[in-house]
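TODO from last week: model DUF481 domain-containing protein.
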Amino acid sequence: MKKIVTLMLLLLFSTANAQENAKDENYRFLDDFRGSASITHNGVSLVPSFSLGDPALLFDLKFTKKKLSFEPDMRFSLDAKPWTMLFWFRYKAIEKEKFSLRVGAHPGLNFRTVNVIRNGNTEELLESRRYLGAEVVPSFKLSKHTSIGMYYLYGRGFDAGVKETNFLVLNAAFSQIPISESFFINFTPQVYYLTSDDLTGYYTSAFLTIGKKQCPFSLTGVINKGISTQILPDDDFTWSVLLNYSFPTKRKI
């Protein structure tokens, strides 16, 4: 765990230093680097029906070179125990005025605390489970602020637990909607179909973000409701509020 965190910090600082020292725009290690850090009372997974159930810290980084990007997604409980780590490699296959298509894949780790008995005493150990995932993300732009799209994720587990996951989402995105001269909102409602091995479920969820122009902080609310599901917890309702910090701080509105 310490080696992973150290590696990510070294990559972060070396990237920032390389960009800062670059004299020629054509001689840049990366075309772009950005990221965000969020704190929440209830950590929500990439699949909104799965949550940590406890306060969490979320870190998303993005290193971009042309159409390729490396995007670590790391989530921790507030006592610094890792929850999930996904190391995304993404490619913008199509970038048109009205249509875009992104594909990606990641190795991932999911962590949980287990109790074991050693020398007659109960101890807590952190257990990691390995996954591979792949995604396909088409999007159609309807107007300056509105788009519709689909998201499909396939996950394969290699250790104890869920072996196969399918996550299919239909969504709409309303982005950078001004509500005053300084503030804007992003709103993404969606419905999705989820399979977890032989179990299936249908859900609806929504994400609402309120931000201020030229301000690195924003606030996001997430709600998720099961419509018909065999996946526990049955017919669940989860919600979360996140305080986000994004960098770099320059925004194009």
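Done. The first helix runs from residue 2 to 21.
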